[in-house]
Amino acid sequence: MTKPLRKATRKGLLSDPRGLANQTSRTYDEDACPVGQVEENARTGDGSTRKSGGQTMREFPLLFCFKNVVVGNGFIAGVVIKGRALLAQEEADVWMMYGVNPGGMAADGEDRNEAMKQFRVSYDSILNDIAADSRSFKAFQAEVERFFSQVSDEAKWLAAVDEVRRTGEADNWETVLNADSASLAVVVKKLTQRNAAPKMNRDPREEKLKLAA
Fold first, then answer.
1. How is 140-161 classified by DSSP, letter by letter?
2. Range of the structural domain that residue 130 is part of
3. If you average pLDDT over residues 170-188, what whole number do you get?
4. For the chain, how big is the Rg over CA atoms in Å?
5. Is residue 27 situated within a structural domain?
6. In a domain, 7, yes or no
7. Which of 68, 145, 208, 213 sits 20 to 30 Å CA-CA off 44?
């Protein structure tokens, strides 16, 4: 049995000691994914824990890029975010994925792949809720940017990056990105018939979560 899915709270702006939440791109780019320089490719990825350097890691720093087209009250918006998350194995069959940027959200699953999937589902639900609550595109844009600016568990995420580098855990992941070159971004653009394009559609191949190393 998994724990109930914990949906994000969209309140309580948290501190950001390094100011990373402010390092956001203001230029809309439909091809914004991936979020950094790919270091190496996978050898495994079945969702199990791995022993690296004689240790079993239980917290994994992740980077992700999500693209959405959202319909609101009288507007259609394209949203691209480049964010960070922390994946943790809390019990033998309980994995949790916590948002770092955006913070305040989490999802769970019986293995790490299910936790990642549910994290995406939770994020989609939050965007839809924001759209439903927003009376205009500008209100939607402001709330999405505020939501993204929430920061949680950054110290744990940075410590997990150090652990990945120390143990060699990157060898066990399909896609690894250099954490030092990764960028954070949130871009919200009002879409019209004139500027809409197929490449704004969600592409799961672009959204594979990447280990930060």
1. HHHHHHHHHH----HHHHHHHH
2. 50-191+206-212
3. 85
4. 17
5. no
6. no
7. 68
